[in-house]
Write a structure and sequence with these properties.
Elements: H1 2-11, E1 18-23, H2 33-51, E2 58-65, E3 71-78, H3 89-92, H4 107-117, E4 121-125, E5 132-139
Parallel strand pairs: 1-2
Antiparallel strand pairs: 2-3, 3-5, 4-5
Helix pairs in contact: 1-2, 2-4
Length: 145
């Protein structure tokens, strides 16, 4: 997981955003690698676009196993402006909903679609000591027979 995330960050125009990566050693997720890459790229590009003109811009990508050991969590935190109150969890992931100048409103809708196809979830969180966090949750499938 770490090589994938590191590669995505290296290939993304981070516009001077300070980015830290914290990934549990040997953590893996069962997912289509290309779709997972698209999800992370969409979330990173959204975050960077909101951080671009801000002082002290920071971003943290973390990947860990949930406390119940049933899911892999990937969280993309940033210290950008909090999301507009009009963007509820119901509307945030709909196509063509955007508050970003020049945004198409498709990035988060695509993220949700990919997560749904992986029996996972995506949610916006504000309770993790960051102004903005998007959390991806992938179920861990048991390999026992």
């Amino acid at each position: 997981m770490l090589p994938l995330i590191s590669s995505i960050v290296t290939q993304t125009d981070m516009a001077g955003v300070d980015c830290d990566i914290q990934v549990e050693p040997s953590l893996n997720v069962e997912a289509d690698i290309h779709r997972l890459q698209q999800v992370v790229v969409n979330l990173l590009e959204n975050a960077v676009s909101f951080l671009r003109n801000q002082d002290g811009r920071r971003l943290l990508i973390e990947a860990l196993t949930s406390s119940d050991r049933q899911n892999v969590l990937i969280r993309i935190h940033n210290n950008g402006p909090v999301l507009d109150d009009s963007l509820t969890s119901e509307t945030l992931f709909r196509p063509f909903v955007s508050k970003r100048a020049g945004g198409s409103g498709l990035g988060l809708a695509i993220v949700k679609r990919i997560m749904d196809a992986h029996n996972g979830t995506v949610q916006h969180r504000i309770d993790l000591n960051w102004p903005v966090t998007f959390e991806l949750m992938f179920p861990i499938h048991s390999r026992s027979a």
